[in-house]
Amino acid sequence: MEKIDWDILGFNVVETKSMFKATCKQGETWQAGALVPYGTIELSPAAGVLNYGQGCFEGTKAFRTANNRVVLFRIDLNAKRMAVSTKRLCIPEMNKTFFINAVKETVLDNIDYVPPYNKGTLYVRPIVWGTAPAIGVKPVEEYTFMVFVSPVGPYFKGGVRPLHLKINKDYHRAAPKGIGNIKAIGNYSASLYPLTKAKSEGYDEVLYLDAKDDTFLEEVGTANLFLIKDKKLMTPQLGGSILAGVTRDSVLKIAKDKLGLDIIETDITLNELYNSDEAFCTGTAVSVSPVGSITDDDGVHSLSDGNIGPYTMKLKELLVGIQREDIDDDFGWLFPIE
Ligand SMILES: Cc1ncc(COP(=O)(O)O)c(C=O)c1O
Known about the structure:
The protein has 338 residues and is α+β, with helices and mostly antiparallel strands. It folds into two domains: 6-152, D-amino Acid Aminotransferase, Chain A, domain 1; 163-323, D-amino Acid Aminotransferase, subunit A, domain 2 (D-amino Acid Aminotransferase, Chain A, domain 2), CATH 3.20.10.10. It has seven helices and 17 strands. The chain has helices at residues 48-52, 75-88, 96-109, 185-200, 246-259, 270-274, 310-323, and strands spanning 18-25, 34-37, 55-57, 60-64, 70-73, 121-130, 142-152, 163-166, 205-209, 217-220, 224-229, 232-236, 262-266, 278-283, 287-296, 299-302, 334-336. The strands form two sheets. Strands 8, 9, 10, 11, 12, 13, 14, 15 and 16 form a nine-stranded mixed sheet that branches. Strands 1, 2, 3, 4, 5, 6, 7 and 17 form an eight-stranded antiparallel sheet that branches. Strand 15 (287-296) and strand 16 (299-302) form a beta hairpin. Helix 2 (75-88) crosses helix 3. It is globular and about 50 Å long. The protein starts with 17 loop residues before the first strand and ends with a strand. The relative contact order is 0.15. Pyridoxal-5'-phosphate binds at residues 59, 219, 222-224, 243, 245-248, 282-284.
């Protein structure tokens, strides 16, 4: 293993020792699989995933904790979401135990790549594709599931700092009754153009509005959105076009149980966001990231005077504290790797 400088990790692909691989035919169930050396794969140019985007994935992290062990965080929820995603895309529905075991096996075999406590995390990417060829539009006959990992640092350059979001009403992320509520690979290809445009203008991410009326907040490109107003924690309700984030669910539970905040999942307008006391977004990759400003057609709306709000800070500390075992895991969210 090449020496890694843990102090300069970004959010990039670092090659590791191994990856998990399994295949499954349409109509069969996921079962056998094995670790193989990390490396490239061969695909038919007619593979279902390449032609018709039949593929979905998950994202989770392994943490090295204060108790010097490696843990996964709420992997049962990723397993559940993968089952929903695969079913929706006509991929053989992923069995939850199979999924969790594959992730655990991959992390264990690559344990040396889990950054030291407080220096980063091991990002885990389970992904499944239609690999059999198809020329007509249909679910293909065979699928490949892989799990690969990469040590990562902060998602946004500059670490924890208030983010600058851009609203661009020319683009939606997902439509009602579409596939925004699953982790379909196509959702992310659709986001690349608005994201690249926003980044070239100096913004960190895109904030999407609802596809029906352009009125209600949906989510950020790779994260869910929250605001705090008068000790109430509000987040857009899950209506089918928003991804049900594992971090979203965790922050809601922490805010209610540990901070005594009122939790409101509802439709939220831009004006409510602009008048909030604090706003932040959540995700496996971004953790809890404060929102500093939102720019729309009318100009820039600054939040929290550009600072990180006190509740945002507290929620981040509590979430990361549980993940790194700085504080007790009262919720039973950690899955040790042994
Ligand atoms: C579109 C989108 N929304 C929200 C999230 C946050 O989900 P989670 O907290 O499960 O990582 C992600 C990241 O996975 C995402 O890609």
